[in-house]
Write the structure tokens for this entry.
Amino acid sequence: VARAAAPALATGNVVVCKPSEFTSASTVLLAEVATSVGFPDGVLNVVLGTGLGVGEPLVGHRWVRKVAFTGSVPGGRAVARVAADRLIPSTLELGGKSANIVFEDADLDLAAAKSVQAFVTNTGQMCSAGTRLLVQRSVYDEMVAKLLPHVQALVPGKDLGPLITAPQYEKVRDFLARAGDEGARAAIGGSVPEPLDPAKGFFVEPTVY
């Protein structure tokens, strides 16, 4: 939200934020902080609700002149269609599986430490999290071995947060089950945990295939 709102505010616009209905508290808190430091009323606004109920009418509103969207591919398509019909610019951030590339002349100890850091920063909750590694074959086994102590030291709840919803948890469990069926070998982790008490969070152990 801050990344999208800051340039708009700096160039004299007002901003309306519609956070995910699953993660709205942080956006509300950001708006409260903005008000507390002197933002005039109506400059940084937050509206709450679902994508269909609030997001779609917001994107289609005649006063909205630019849209920045972070979310799913189907959501991005819907936003892009409305923006295209209105001929307004849109920026879509629809997730990613960013790769770090490691060649044989790299400092492998440093590469291992930084590669793990790349996928746990912000508990991995960003599209640029380095969740894939492309490693030159000559140092592949050595690189995997160097990753394992770093991954083993990760603490769910401290270094990695829980998945946000039960459906997302089930989706990841399905990925874990399919990985083994499709021939991937878990160097660490990879078990398919039973659903936990939702009050404690939907945690999945750190895994390297």
Observations:
- The first strand starts at residue 15 and ends at 17.
- Helices lie at 2-10, 25-36, 51-60, 73-86, 108-120, 140-152, 166-181.
- The beta strands are 15-17, 44-46, 67-70, 90-93, 99-102, 132-135.
- The chain has a mean pLDDT of 91.
